[in-house]
Records
---
Amino acid sequence: MSDQKTILDQMRNAQIQDTYIHPDDLAWVPFPGAPGIDMKVLRVSSESGTWTVLFQCTAGSGFPRHLHLGAGEYLMISGEMEVRGGAKAGGITAVAGDYGYEPTGMIHDWTNFVSDSVFFFTNHGPIQFMDDDDNIVGVLDWQGILAIDASAPAPV
Ligand SMILES: [Fe+2]
């Protein structure tokens, strides 16, 4: 490649920014309302409201009932996650290597972890948490993710 082309590429790339995260450098942060679940925040977008995290979930932990106000995507890295009761109840059982897409408007009751699990997760907007009577108990958006992340201990 010519020096001129390299310079032009650098000029163009300087106007945008790519992201590189080494998760081992980040501390796990407790995910509120879900004992046994921690996360590492990889990226948050104030423009699109998308947030991307790594979740670590102990066996027996789970996310309470929620409504996706933005679509979610996940990739299981290890462990086993049961969505909507798992495959035995007509839902999904996701294991290492599995990818899932959760459309906007999807309601998930108890999403539980059968074994210690780690998964990559992106949500394209907020998640609304509800009780069994559909009363809203909280809405988690990109700003909430940043606030939780700010409570993380400094990396060592
Ligand atoms: Fe969900």
Note: The CA atoms of residues 24 and 55 lie 13 Å apart.
---
Amino acid sequence: MKLRLRIFRAVLIGISVLIIANPAISIAVADEDALSRGKYIYDAAGCGGCHSDERINGFPVGGRALKTPFGEFRVANITPSRQTGIGNWSAEDFHHALRNGIAPGGRQLFPVFPFPAFSQMTDQDISDLFAYLSSLDAVENQVPASLVQPPFGWRSLMVLWRFAFFKPGPYQPDPGHNAEWNRGNYLAHAVAHCEECHTPRNSMGALSHKQAFSGNIGGPDGQNAPNITSDETSGIGKWTIDEIETLLKTGQTPDFDAVASGMKSVVKGTAKLTDADRHAIAVYLKTVPAIFTPPPSPPKPAN
Ligand code: HEC
Ligand code: HEC
């Protein structure tokens, strides 16, 4: 046991050294454009969906409990409060948290904060997000600690999780596709993190990318997100690009149903995107390979 702990520590230190040795990140000077670009990404990424509290004017003061099979995670205060938020963070600290999932002091963040997706963001988008968050009022809100089951409670074990499942970004455009498709892919993965709910997870809570977008009905996160691959029976292969765009704009499906649960808050963000960006997501989504998923079995009759 002791030896294993020592190996963990050695790996942890090794990784920190690698990351510290990375070339410096260029930081854009905050200007009005950066603030509005940052707000755009903030909405599209649904940061407020988890972090904001409507009782406090929607400020991202955190505090909400997210229940997962690994425990109950508490969402952090990301207002610029120096005591209880991220007011003491430098732009580099913020980049490190989004790109690598590591907070100041080497604290490993849990992937319930979807950093594996945000890691794919461009430096520019991360800088703009930081400029926007820094412009908000600092609101004091001491968030209680997460109640997490071992081994997930041991933050240092995240090092192994990351080795196995985490590939840091940023997103590399695919030269085999045009700019619109690449923009859609970027928005779907790095920003709006569609896979976080629509892709099944393995027993370690990591996304099974081979089954990308094939749905997570009855999955451990309780989201029941359907198959959105281009499969014609179990997915959305019959939807047109226009229909996908309408859903992302208004929350309405081609059957005139309104989406509910987690998707409702996603649409609050995608509704604020430009038409061109919604179109790009739809164009990309139509190219996701079809995967058939059998319909969930009906509940067994009780007797
Ligand atoms: C699905 C919910 C969810 C979304 C969406 C989300 N976060 Fe978080 N975030 C969390 C949770 C939970 C934590 C705490 C993680 C932990 O304790 O390891 C967290 C932690 C953080 C932290 C670390 C704060 C600290 O003091 O340790 C930062 C910074 C952050 N989030 C920024 C963002 C930004 C920026 C966005 C949008 C781009 C975002 N988050 C979107 C759930 C979310
Ligand atoms: C927070 C989890 C979550 C995220 C993130 C998410 N979805 Fe969903 N999505 C859902 C859930 C849950 C439903 C089912 C809603 C319902 O039953 O009304 C859904 C439904 C849908 C549907 C309708 C499918 C159908 O057959 O009716 C589409 C299309 C869709 N999502 C696309 C997306 C896209 C594109 C993204 C990224 C921009 C995304 N989703 C991000 C949870 C999520």
Note: The radius of gyration is 20 Å.
